[in-house]
Amino acid sequence: MMRIGVDIGGQHTRIALVQRARIVDQQRFPTPQEYPALLDTLTAAIDGLREEHPVTAVGLGLPGRFDPDTHVVQRALNLPFLEGHTPDEDLANRLRLPVALASDVGAAAVGQHAALPGAPHRFLYLSLGTGVGGALVVAGKLQDLSTDGPAHFGHVIVDTAEDAPACACGARGCLEACVRGPALSDPARRAVAGLRLGLGVLQLVHLLRAQVVMLGGGVLDHDPNLLDEVRAMWTPPPTTLIPAGFEIRGPALATDQAGVLGAATLAGA
Ligand SMILES: [Zn+2]
Question: Do the domain assignments include residue 112?
Fold first, then answer.
């Protein structure tokens, strides 16, 4: 039995053929910048793989938020043409296969969780890139923390100074504003990024009781010292309220594999 994981990015899309949590074959191509062309390209690539392999389901991760009930894409800043559409349903109609839908961060969280030895019961994944997103996995299941989709993990406030960086959400001092990739090119911001990120993790651990917090995404790929700085802030732990066996760790999978593997895992859920 084989599944296909699709990770739609603002620039590139990855498609992986997955068997027993391993990538058997994968493709990467520029993301078409209009909706019918995207569906055409995905359908052709997936049908090509099905000619040679018995594919039973497809999982789709996309960079945006969607209504958890109707799956209508509500917000996709990098691919606004997705808004108002239900890409999982449209793709399922073309392929005549079941198609699961998740956010790109949600799919990556599922992939990273599945790759961890011991699969922690409560697992928080934070992805640091041009923005900061997160997803919570409990007992192996991706959680929706509110009625309109995943929580806004990147917008806990971690800097209350008057000159705290402004965030796209309208607030100042959000975790995202402090540790997103573009902010870290400023040496003064970079100098305190480990502390800010550690504070963000602290707020989220208190709220979500995660046993493992994993930090991943493009920022960590380019700047792995950030992980050590967060760990240093947590040694000794800044609170007596952390769950037993708590751990902050780096990615178990490369960023470009976590999304497709997680999407394929969700396709079987
Ligand atoms: Zn914000």
Answer: no
Determine if the pTM surpasses 0.85: yes
Residue 233 CA to ligand 1 center (angstroms) comes to 23
For 41, 98, 252, 269, the CA distances from 114, given in Å and listed in that order, are 29, 21, 9, 13
- Written as one letter, the residue type at 26 is Q
Whole-number Å distance, alpha carbon 190 to ligand 1 midpoint, is 18
CA of 166 to the centre of ligand 1 (A): 8
In a domain, 196, yes or no: yes
Q: Hunting for tokens 């594999």 — which residue is that?
A: 257
41-88 pLDDT, tens digit each: 999 999 999 999 999 999 999 998 898 889 999 988 889 999 999 999
Residue 195 within a domain: yes
Each residue's pLDDT tens digit, 164-176: 999 988 999 999 9
Query: What whole-number distance in Å separates Cα of residue 101 and Cα of residue 80?
Result: 17
Query: Is 129 in the same domain as 234?
Result: yes
Which residues are CB-contacts of 14 (< 8 A; sequence separation ≥ 6)? 5, 6, 7, 26, 27, 28, 256, 259, 260
- 165 CA from centroid of ligand 1 (Å): 10
